Amino acid sequence: MDIPEKLIEILKKAKKVAMLTGAGVSAESGIKTFRDPDGLWTKFNPAELASIDGFMSNPKLVWEWYQHRRAIVFDAKPNPGHFAIAEMQNLFDKFTLITQNVDRLHQTAGATNVLELHGNIIDNRCLDCNRNFEGETSLADKFVPRCTHCGGLIRPCVVWFGEMLPEEAFKQSELAAMHCDVFFSVGTSGEVYPAAGLPFIAQNYGAKIVEVNPNHTSVSNSMDFVLRGTSSHVLPLIVEKLKN
Ligand SMILES: [Zn+2]
């Protein structure tokens, strides 16, 4: 595909760029969206597994589901889209990466200061005292571990249905949207608010907004540029053009 010359021109002048990424970026690393459970888990409703009510009513079941998803994440590798994004961080004065993905593949690819709007699936925290337990959980843990400090149940550091986004990460995302020259919406359906509103904040503040997605989405028609392709295909092409 051809990247519009006009967009490259704008990007070459841009000082501040922000990017929101979603499930499409990780899909190419073999990670399905959690709305689309696989294998034994197809019979469960993700909204029930990924919620505090689901966890309280059956902690072991929800823990097993997360262990299953972690096993997939631990096996996954960043794809060319992740690497291109990490490289883009070095091409502008300021590049803010905002992700809805919980798999940490952006960081594995070398991205830094990632704003994780939905938390991450690697770390855990105590449901009662909120203490963080960083690092990989042993996949051998079949039962929900207990907090070594207070004995509370340990839960994954992901944002569940019905929970607020991490306040500081979202505030930083809004600020980045307000102050950027170009805002990219990559591999995200544009349907989950408040994250889906970020490109429009950017547009209202004068930025050009760009969608990278193989499919038409509910926000496509509002975009200044639409690049119809996967992030692993489109983003390396942009990086190549910017470096020349
Ligand atoms: Zn605790």
Sheet with most strands: strand arrangement: 3-2-1-7-8-9
Radius of gyration: 19 Å
- Tally of strands: 9
Proportion in β-strands: 15-25%
Total domains, how many? Answer: 2
Which small-molecule species are bound to the chains here?
A: zinc ion
Average pLDDT level: 93
CATH class of the largest domain: Alpha Beta
Regions with little confidence, pLDDT below 50 for 5+ residues: none
Estimate the helix proportion, in percent. Answer: 25-40%
CATH architecture of the largest domain: 3-Layer(aba) Sandwich
What is the name of the CATH superfamily of the largest domain? TPP-binding domain
Given helix and strand content, the structural type is alpha/beta
Q: Biggest β-sheet: count, sense, barrel?
A: 6 strands, parallel
Shape: elongated
Give an account of the 3D structure:
This protein has 244 residues and is α/β, with parallel strands linked by helices. It folds into 2 domains: 5-29 and 78-117 and 166-243, TPP-binding domain (Rossmann fold); 39-75 and 124-158, SIR2/SIRT2 'Small Domain' (2-Layer Sandwich), CATH 3.30.1600. It is 36% helix and 17% strand. The protein is built from 10 helices and 9 strands. The protein has helices spanning 5-13, 23-27, 46-49, 52-57, 59-75, 80-88, 105-108, 167-179, 198-204, 231-243; strands at residues 16-21, 94-99, 115-116, 119-126, 132-133, 154-158, 182-186, 208-212, 225-227. The chain has a 6-stranded parallel β-sheet, with helices on both faces. Helix 7 links the parallel strand 2 and strand 3. Helix 6 (80-88) packs parallel to helix 10. The model has no long low-confidence stretch (mean pLDDT 93). Residues 126, 128-129, 131, 147, 149-150, 152 line the site of zinc ion.
